[in-house]
């Protein structure tokens, strides 16, 4: 949003994750709250797709600048792509809730539009 390169570590360039915007997660949670699905067990609210950090940054249309960890804005360890940072199937949510997350490019575009419409949010140091 500031038109400058994002400072990241070298290992972050090898990292990735299952990126999902809050709006898409909220849509799935709203369906559950309305009683869709069986309502028992676990629903993975995720994209189910691994996207590398470089690919994610490209969607935002910004450059990266490789820096040491102490001056980085992001430092992700590619070895932690399991557990809470894993990529999990969202097939149950898709089938039972009839929920399909928007593509990541569309999610990023919507967020960038929102961010440009709300510059004061970022001026507050967020």
UniProtKB/TrEMBL annotation:
Stored InterPro entries: NAD(P)-bd_dom_sf
SUPFAM superfamilies assigned to the protein according to its UniProt record, in alphabetical order: NAD(P)-binding Rossmann-fold domains
Listed name of the protein: Uncharacterized protein
Source organism per UniProt: Streptomyces flavovirens
């Amino acid at each position: 949003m500031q038109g400058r390169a994002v400072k990241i570590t070298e290992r972050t360039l090898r990292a990735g994750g299952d990126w999902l915007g809050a709006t898409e997660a909220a849509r799935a949670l709203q369906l559950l709250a309305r009683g869709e699905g069986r309502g028992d067990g676990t629903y993975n609210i995720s994209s189910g797709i691994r996207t590398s950090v470089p690919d994610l940054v490209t969607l935002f249309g910004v450059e990266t600048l490789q820096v040491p960890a102490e001056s980085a804005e992001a430092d992700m360890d590619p070895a932690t792509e399991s557990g809470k940072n894993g990529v999990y199937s969202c097939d149950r949510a898709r089938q039972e809730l009839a929920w399909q997350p928007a593509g990541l490019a569309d999610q990023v575009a919507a967020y960038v539009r929102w961010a440009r419409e709300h510059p004061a949010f970022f001026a507050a140091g967020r």
